[in-house]
Structures are given as structure tokens and as C-alpha cells.
Amino acid sequence: xxxxxxxxxxxPHPLYEKYVLKPFFEDAKQYYYEPMLAANRAHAVMLFRCGxxxxxxxxxxxxxxxxxxxxGLDELAYRSGVEDLFFAVExxxxxxxxxxxxxxxxxxxxRNDLGYALTRLALRPPLLQxxxxxxxxxxxxxxxxxxxxxxxxPGYTHTQPAQPTTMAHYIAGxxxxxxRDTARLRFACAxxxxxxxxxxxxxxxxxxxxxxxxxRLLGFSDVQLSTYDSIGASDNxxxxxxxxxxxxxxxxxxSKDLLFWATQESGAIRIDDxxxxxxxxxxxxxxxVVLEHLRARISRMLAQAQGITLQCHNIPFGDTQDIEDxxxxxxxxxxxxxxxxxxxxxxxxDSLGVNVxxxxxxxxxxxxxxxxxxxxxxxxxxxxxxxxxxxVAALVRHAQAGGLAPTDLSxxxxxxxxxxxxxxxxxxxxxAFARALDPRAFVEARDLPGGAAPSATGxxxxxxxxAVGEDRYWLADTRAALAAADAxxxxxVAALTG
Length: 498
Prior knowledge:
Blueprint: H1 2-9, H2 14-31, H3 33-49, H4 55-71, H5 85-97, H6 99-102, H7 111-147, E1 152-157, E2 160-166, H8 167-192, E3 194-195, H9 211-217, E4 222-223, H10 227-232, H11 235-261, E5 269-270, H12 289-312, H13 328-350, E6 353-354, H14 356-362, H15 370-381, H16 385-402, H17 411-422, H18 430-437, H19 439-445, H20 454-497
Parallel strand pairs: 3-4
Antiparallel strand pairs: 1-2, 5-6
């Protein structure tokens, strides 16, 4: 019994090692290794610049870090009893620099502020990649929309044909959503790019350090002023989750429409052969499976984003494993899934075919233009709108009962319906009647800002192109600032080790 108790008390328990330590060590190697080296270099430089350690000590630490970097990850395999990658690197630094110098890197620092800094540093590349791919998708959709400014199609409400519009007008609506999604990703980047370094375990440190210098050397745009907030906050993670959740919802609704349009019953679009799979038994099948994979991956991203939020929910405001090692798979997995989705979507849009003539024919089917007929009766026949609405509704019922298509109708039929059903006498020319039911004229008349007319939609696309350009500039400016910080840190290291 004594030996069993002794075995149970030793660290780590085999199951804890199997399910916690080993997997998280591998996660840390994948996501935190490069950020840890950078953070260690910046901390050594800052400690020297603030007079906390000597030049010799800083140089020894930086040279040891260079040796660790040169040896690579193979030298940092998991070893039982070494709790995580932090201790693996620290142990190696002490071996290389000696106990006198190697053990001083943790002065004025804790695994708490370091760990949260590593998360923020590691989130930068996938966040910026997701933003880049979203901007690229918007550029591709803009090009697609410009090719279809004149492409008539039925617009839908409640899944039923409602009014004629254009493919460009529809895509402009999608682009408006994606513009806001980019703004949400930018906000998540800004929230994330604040430095917790200097908070140490919780309360800060009595050593005379420079938190702003640490932030500048690592490319952080600001310092989290409250040291409690620095090790307790999780909104940099939930902001990522929120941005991806809304992006996922917006893209899922677009996917829903694309899947309908790709059916033979709709016949609106044609997915490129490079994205199709055939049936094992039915030779005629052209399965648009890429849209199904996109739908599934959007669901996966939404689940991962919701998992981030739930894991941050109802935990103490302070350092806790819930938002450290345990959240890594959800946090980085959600962004990796987002990048896959956005890149796939861009390729689909680039190769998407549109059945223009079929859509033009469908633009009038289902009496989609009769809103304009009611409006015309107000303008040219002097009817109150509600009366005009009732008359046109009666005309549609008459046509459906008689099996008449919209193109079979005429002003004389309208006059007969008005007299028979509403006891009205109206005057409307055949020319005005035909113009009111013409889908092209219907669209051209909607030329108010943001309307379906090609001129109005074109103006919207111009504004969206400007917004894309601004987001491109932000992305380039952000990357340039990070590169400048990298160069600044490299110069400090070279000055100390040269």
C-alpha cells in the first residue's frame, strides 16, 4: 500500500502526462516556440537596458537563445517531469549559459504574463492571414460583380421570387457584410496586440523594468495598463470568436444560396468541373461537393468559435488553465479553419459560371415585376397605392387561374379585371403596361443610392473597392510595423552579442 501511495503522489500521473502534458507540449512547440524565443530575447534586452542584469549576463542569455534556435525543435522533445515548453527552454538556457546567467531570464517575469504574451504573439500570423484572405475574397467578389452588373435575376424573399434584381446587386449585399466582417477582424487584431508583459504573476514587479520597451521590441501597439487585466483578460480570444462567428453566419447564408442556385431546378450557376465529384452509379451527376465541404467547415468554425466563448465563460478573472493550454486547439483551430474556408471560397468565385440567359428569363417568372405595375398605376392612372395593389393582386389571380404567363398579359386585360372585380375604370397605355412588366426597366428604375440599377450598384461597388483598398493599406501597414519591431529587436540583440 505504501508503494502504491508513493507512485500515485509522484508527478506526473501517467494519465495526466498522456492527456495533458504531452499534447500541450506539442501544441506549444507548434504555436509558441518562435514567439517564446522572441519574447525571451526582448526580455533579456529590456532587463539589460533597465539595469536589472549586466551586459555580460544579457549577452550570455542571447547567445544561449541563439544556440537553442539553431538546434531547433528536435532538441526540445518532451521529457517526463518537465512540465512544459517554458521549463524545457529555461533548463536548456541554464545548461548553455550557466546557472549564474541562465537563471536570470525569469527576473521580473512569470509564466503568467509570458504565457498570455505568447498567445497574443502567436495569434498575430493567423489573424492577419485570415484578414488577408477575407480581403482577397472581397476583391474577387468585386470583380465577379462587375462582370454581372447587367445580369438580371430574381431576388428572393421568404425563399420565393420577389422582384427582379441583378447578380451584381446581390453580390454587393454580400460584400457589405464581408466589409463589416473585416472590420471585426481588425478590431480583434487591435484588442489582441496589447502587451501583458511586466504583469509578472499578477501584481507586477518591484524591479525597475520598462513595460513599454518590451512592448515595442515585440511589435505590440500598446501595453495593458492594469497588471490584473494583463493576466486575467480573455476578450482578445472572445473577440476572435465573435468575428469568426459573424463571418461564419454571413458565409453560411451565401453558401445556402449558392447550393440552391447550383441545383438543376434553379439552373442559375455552374460550379467549375475542378470542384465537382461524380456519382459512383449515376453517370449524369455533377455534385457541387465543394459547397458542401464549405458548409461543413463553416459549421466547424462556428463550433470552434462557440467553444472559445464557452471556455472563457464563468471562470475566475485571473490566471487559469481554461484560457491557457486548454484553449489552444479551439483558438488556433478556428483561425486555421477560417483560412481554409476563405481560400476555397475565393477559388470557387474565380471559376464560377453564371447562366445569364436562363436567369433573365427567370427574372420575370412568378410575376416578380408587378410591384412596378402597381407603382405605375399610382403615377399614371392616379390610383391610391392600396387600391392599385388590390387591382394588381386581382390581375395576378386572374392570370394564374387562366394559366397565363406575365408575357401574356396586356393593358386591356388589366382594364377588364379592374372593371369586373373592383368596378374601376382605368386608363393605362399598352406601352406603359409593357414597360411596367419589363424586368430590365424595373431594375433600371431603381436608381436611388444602393438600388438595383447598374448605375446605382456600380457606385456601391466603387465605394466597396475603396473600402477594400483601405483594408489592404491597414494590412500592409500592420505588417510593416511588425517587421520594423523585428528589426529593432534584432539590432538590440546584435549590439549586445556582436
